[in-house]
Design a protein that fits this description.
The complex is a heterodimer of chains A (245) and B (247). Chain A is mainly alpha-helical and 245 residues long. Chain A is 78% helix and 0% strand. The chains are: A mainly alpha (245), B alpha/beta (247).
């Protein structure tokens, strides 16, 4: 109820031309079209940043999860320690540390893009590791035994028997992480990454219309993520068919 | 002259924590012999056959398969694993692969066969279990009896010398039991060494060279089926047979 009132209030405000100045992003005017183009120009970077980071974090996550499921106590402890440590660091802190701290430590210069990718991927990999662990643990023991009985080694058992089934089961969770990654990529704006959020911030500084510009920003993320979600659901439907009993 | 032993088990013992599942079990199985093991649940019969292909390790005693002792040595374990096929109660087919892919995976990845050779091999064994027309389907589209026959064919594609069956018909609807048993009886006719854990006593009578009765982790009685069913020596075995034959 309260929500409806709030929503109604926002709509009323939108109808009140005194408080909204949509001219700032009105595509029918030259200036508005230019501003809109400027806002959208961050889209490619947001996508590239998130996609690169998620690819790395899924790989690292799997490489961390597998030793976590080993019979070897030391390997399990190392995997656990990685997950607990990395998971405890806020993403924003990690971004700052990788961009400003890591170059001092390593003597390498790291571009804004790669600092963003490393921080996002590192942070996400701890969560990916836990997701993979849950997925792999959900596969019945009989599958391992059957793979063993047809002489498959560890690598082949994982690659051809366990992971294809585990990945189908964790697809919803992986989709979640992808959405999360797209949203968290906005934090990389603090080190000057020219992605969606940074573009909006810059435009606000020159146009002084935060309401309209950030509303456009909200819509940009919303549309982007709705498309990604639909893609994940499509993939889930395609793959799930094989396992339904 | 007796046939050389394909499997030698000497004083095998195994425990899960404090519980002794196998207490000094000894058994020799000759090449080509068909052994049926029965006994009440919890008697250690499944554990015994799972020890033979190394699915379970043992704490005491010795297992030798075709001259290879099963122990910590990885190469020896791998060799034994290749000699022994296993059929499970729950089939354990790979649900994300088609029937044909289920059969081809081991031959291609573990035996190094080409895909063409593996496909030919798989089709040959699917014909032997009489379901070549199901090759392109996923396991979930098959009945339980068909799934178990696919599982048998999958094991045979590894061309083992020994086949182990762990209650292969216990998870099946009654009307599907005979199609699986028929395939197994046919396999018995080819000279394969077989150890079958089952409660299907009619089938046991038909194919067994020797019957083994286990109880509380021990082999209580070993006898040819005619004597086993008509004149069991131990009281425990008599009781067990009474219960399962006259229910």
């Amino acid at each position: 109820m309260r929500l409806a009132v709030l929503f109604g209030a926002v709509l009323a405000l939108a109808g009140c031309s005194a408080s909204w100045g949509w001219y700032v992003v009105d595509p029918s005017t030259a200036k508005g079209a230019q501003n809109l183009g400027f806002l959208l120009s961050g889209l490619g970077m947001t996508i590239r940043l998130s996609a690169t980071a998620i690819l790395i974090s899924v790989t690292v996550g799997l490489l961390v999860a597998l030793p976590g499921l080993s019979a070897h106590r030391g390997l399990r402890a190392a995997s656990r320690a990685y997950v607990e440590t990395v998971r405890a660091v806020p993403i924003l802190v990690l971004i700052l540390w990788v961009y400003y701290g890591l170059p001092q430590l390593s003597g390498l210069t790291i571009s804004v893009f790669w600092a963003g990718v490393i921080a996002l991927a590192l942070s996400d990999s701890a969560f990916q590791a836990e997701i993979f662990r849950a997925g792999i643990q959900s596969i019945a023991r009989g599958q391992y035994e059957a793979a063993y009985s047809v002489s498959l080694g560890y690598r082949d058992t994982m690659r051809y028997v366990i992971l294809p089934q585990a990945i189908r089961r964790i697809l919803p969770a992986l989709g979640n992480q992808l959405v999360y990654m797209l949203k968290m990529s906005s934090l990389v704006s603090v080190i000057g990454m020219q992605e969606l959020t940074r573009k909006a911030n810059e435009l606000v500084v020159s146009e002084y219309r935060p309401l309209e510009i950030y509303t456009v920003l909200v819509l940009e993320y919303l549309v982007l993520i709705l498309i990604v979600s639909a893609g994940v659901r499509w993939l889930e439907r395609r793959l799930a068919v094989d396992e339904r009993q | 002259m007796p046939a050389p032993a394909m499997i030698r088990i000497e004083a095998l013992s195994k425990r899960f924590d404090a519980f002794e599942v196998l207490k000094s079990v000894s058994l020799d199985v000759a090449a080509g012999e068909k052994l049926v093991i029965c006994g009440p649940s919890g008697s250690g019969k499944s554990t015994l056959i799972r020890c033979i292909n190394g699915l379970e390790d043992h704490q005491g005693g010795r297992i030798e398969v075709d001259g290879t002792p099963l122990g910590r040595d990885r190469a020896a374990r791998a060799r034994v694993r290749g000699l022994v096929g296993m059929v499970f109660q729950q089939f354990n087919l790979f649900p994300h692969l088609t029937v044909l892919e289920n059969l081809m995976l081991g031959p291609v990845r573990a035996r190094g066969l080409s895909r063409t050779a593996a496909r030919d091999l798989a089709m040959r064994y699917l014909e032997r279990v009489r379901i070549p027309e199901q090759a392109g389907k996923y396991p979930r589209h098959l009945s339980g009896g068909q799934q178990q026959r696919v599982a048998i064919a999958r094991s045979l594609c590894m061309e083992p010398k020994i086949m182990l069956f762990d209650e292969p018909t216990s998870a099946l609807d009654p009307e599907m039991i005979s199609e699986v048993l028929d395939v197994m009886a046919e396999l018995a006719g080819t000279g394969m060494t077989m150890i079958v854990v089952t409660h299907e006593m009619g089938f046991a009578r038909r194919i067994a060279d020797r019957m083994v009765f286990m109880d509380h982790g021990e082999i209580v009685e070993v006898a040819p089926p005619e004597r086993f069913f008509t004149a069991p020596e131990s009281a425990r075995c008599r009781d067990f047979l009474d219960r399962i034959l006259n229910h």
